[in-house]
Design goal:
heterodimer; A: alpha+beta; 4 helices; about 20% helix; B: mainly alpha; 7 helices; about 0% strand
Chain lengths: ~230, ~150
């Protein structure tokens, strides 16, 4: 089955896309920054992710800052709740910090990426994707990993699909090839913090407070001297 | 802006030396640990660390694999070096059989540091899979049959 023009879209050049990584990618020398989009994180991962089996090169991007933050907040909350869950287990890592620092990348493609399969509720069935699993935020599915392999094998360069964690219609862009030679990008330091329900204040005590599972707080940390922090 | 030293993302031999030095200063891992991890003579490793000797390509690759896992551990613990150091040193009581719970890591009954020293390079992918199961996978998913740790796919 060749690329279906009715499903194919182009990810344009020069338009900001976003990705969040650990701060370990944010080096003073910008020559290392492009590793953020080389897809090797997925390639070296055993577990895989939403649209890739483990060991498969994949670059995940978001179409807006809001989408990117919504995706990251899901994993940030999940990691902290898991550490709370472990408190009485043999491997307790101690009470986790309820905040964390990451790097947000503003990424612009130098050349457009054509033939990206646009999955919508209306189009997904054309490539055998179940729309419900595409949109369900609770976990990753083998079905979507399998469909990505199918889509890639039919000549597409990526997938554009609804973010399962965005509540405003944001989309993620999943590219199948290394983009490190095809981007300009800039880093921004951001801090995530969990919050309580009502009143909405920083979550600080897991014994007495109720975590807000649908909201979190994000703060941009200044990029200049006053806000500069080096991990040595 | 929060940044890390350039050698965090560099894979050159010089960067490997800087990564080892950083781990010795910040995570309490000494030349003895690295020599045992690599199955290398400690004097030769120390000589390499000073830039006076060479390691085989295979052993350099083990150091690269281990550094990638260290970055995952740092990220997992929000770059809190004390927490990573504690994770390395703490002996985990034997609980559920390995693989039955995400909270029973591959080094149950030992410390992560001792596990790496005893099992050498073979331990690194096991540790990496364990930490990745928190970061990228679904740690509550049942392990695939025959797998010694949890992940979403063998």
């Amino acid at each position: 089955m060749p690329v279906n023009p009715a499903l194919a879209v182009t990810v344009p050049a020069g338009v900001s896309l976003y990705r969040i990584t650990a701060v370990s990618f944010n080096t003073p020398n910008a020559v290392h920054h492009k590793k953020v989009v080389n897809g090797m994180g997925a390639r070296k991962s055993h577990a895989g992710a939403r649209y890739n089996y483990g060991g498969v090169l994949t670059v995940y991007l978001a179409d807006s800052v809001q989408t990117c933050l919504a995706e990251k907040m899901f994993y940030f909350q999940r990691k902290i709740v898991q550490q709370l869950d472990a408190l009485h287990q043999p491997l307790s890592l101690g009470v986790p910090a309820f905040s964390g620092t990451c790097t947000l990348w503003d990424i612009r493609l130098k050349k457009p990426v054509p033939d990206v399969c646009h999955l919508t509720q209306a189009s997904a069935s054309a490539v055998g994707v179940f729309p419900s699993l595409m949109l369900n935020p609770s976990q990753d599915y083998e079905h979507l990993k399998d469909r990505r392999a199918f889509i890639e094998s039919h000549g597409y360069n990526g997938i554009r699909a609804a973010s399962s964690r965005s509540t405003t219609g944001g989309e993620i862009i999943v590219l199948f090839d290394d983009q490190s030679k095809n981007v300009d990008l800039d880093p921004y330091t951001i801090e995530f913090r969990l919050v309580t329900r009502t009143p909405v204040v920083p979550f600080a005590n897991h014994l007495t407070e109720l975590l807000n599972f649908t909201t979190g707080e994000v703060r941009f940390v200044g990029g200049h001297a006053a806000g500069h922090r080096e991990l040595r | 802006m929060t940044t890390v030293p350039d050698f965090f993302q560099d894979e050159s031999e010089e960067a490997l030396r800087s990564q080892v030095e950083w781990q010795e200063q910040h995570l309490g891992l000494g030349d003895g640990f690295f020599a045992r991890l690599l199955r290398e003579d400690q004097r030769r490793f120390s000589s390499w660390a000073r830039g006076a000797d060479a390691l085989t390509r295979d052993k350099e690759d083990v150091l690269r694999d281990w550094w990638r896992t260290v970055l995952h551990l740092l990220s997992f613990q929000n770059f809190d070096e004390e927490r990573v150091r504690a994770l390395l040193e703490r002996t985990v009581p034997t609980g559920l059989p390995v693989g039955q719970s995400v909270f029973s890591p591959p080094w149950s009954g030992s410390s992560l540091k001792k596990y790496l020293e005893n099992d050498g390079p073979d331990a690194i992918p096991q540790v990496s899979r364990w930490v990745e199961s928190f970061t990228f996978g679904d740690p509550y998913a049942p392990p695939p049959k025959g797998s010694t740790c949890l992940s979403t796919r063998p």
